[in-house]
Amino acid sequence: MSQINTPPHATNAPTNAPTNGKARWAGIGLTALIGVLALTVQWGVVTTKLDQVGRQLDSLAVEIRSLRSDIYSIERRVSYLEGRLNGRSHSQTGDTP
């Protein structure tokens, strides 16, 4: 019968003893430190990925330059062959170029 009249805080649950706040500030500091470390790691990952993208863009630019020079070379050859072909057609018809 004594349990019926006991207040809820009188059970065997641990009591919340007053603290001086050091544990709370330690928890806040630890959380902030973990957050800063996480941001630092994430920043490193992002910069590494950006460096990889930059290297890939550089290699693509080199390939584009190479392809451009190949295209110009092919265009010169085609132009030369067209000129020769046009020269032959003019000489066969008797037209003066």
Quick summary:
By secondary structure, the protein is mostly helical. The protein has one helix and no strands.
Feature tags:
single chain, about 100 residues, mainly alpha, 1 helix, about 75% helix, about 0% strand
Tell me what the structure shows.
By secondary structure, the chain is mostly helical. The chain is built from 1 helix and no strands. The protein has one helix at residues 22-93. The termini are far apart. The relative contact order is 0.04. The mean pLDDT is 83.
Q: What is the fold's blueprint, element by element?
A:
Layout: H1 22-93
Can you summarize the main beta sheet? none
Q: Roughly what is the average pLDDT, rounded to an integer?
A: 83
Counting helices, strands and paired strands, the structural category is mainly alpha
CA distance, first residue to last residue: 126 Å
Order of helices and strands: H
* Helix content, binned percent: over 70%
Total strand count, please?
0
Query: Taking Cα atoms only, what radius of gyration do you get, to the nearest Å?
Result: 41 Å
Strand content: under 5%
Detail the poorly predicted runs.
none
Q: Per the principal axes of the C-alpha atoms, what is the gross shape?
A: rod-shaped
Tally of helical runs: 1
